[in-house]
Design goal:
This protein has helices at residues 4-12, 17-24, 28-41, 58-75. The chain is mainly α and 76 residues long. It contains four helices and no strands. The protein is elongated, with a radius of gyration of 22 Å.
Length: 76
């Protein structure tokens, strides 16, 4: 009995990155990145990172900088 992943692998293993990209309708850079990650790590799951995650989003940081800059101009 074959699993879905085995069946997909059999269809995609011998194809080029370009062919896989066209078949799955995703960018070649994405396919290339996944293949590279698989060859290096043996998995495609996100690896744990060091350090504490940020609480503030990029947009929040931008808004905070903008507010501080605007208040500096008003106080000068």
């Amino acid at each position: 009995m074959q699993t879905a992943s085995t069946n997909i692998c059999e269809r995609l293993c011998n194809k080029s990155i370009h062919e896989i990209s066209l078949l799955l309708n995703i960018p070649q850079s994405t396919v290339s990145g996944i293949v590279t990650q698989w060859k290096q790590l043996g998995a495609t799951a996100t690896q744990p990172r060091s350090g504490r995650p940020r609480k503030m989003t990029e947009r929040g940081q931008h808004m905070l900088k903008h507010t501080v800059h605007r208040r500096r101009q008003l106080s000068a």
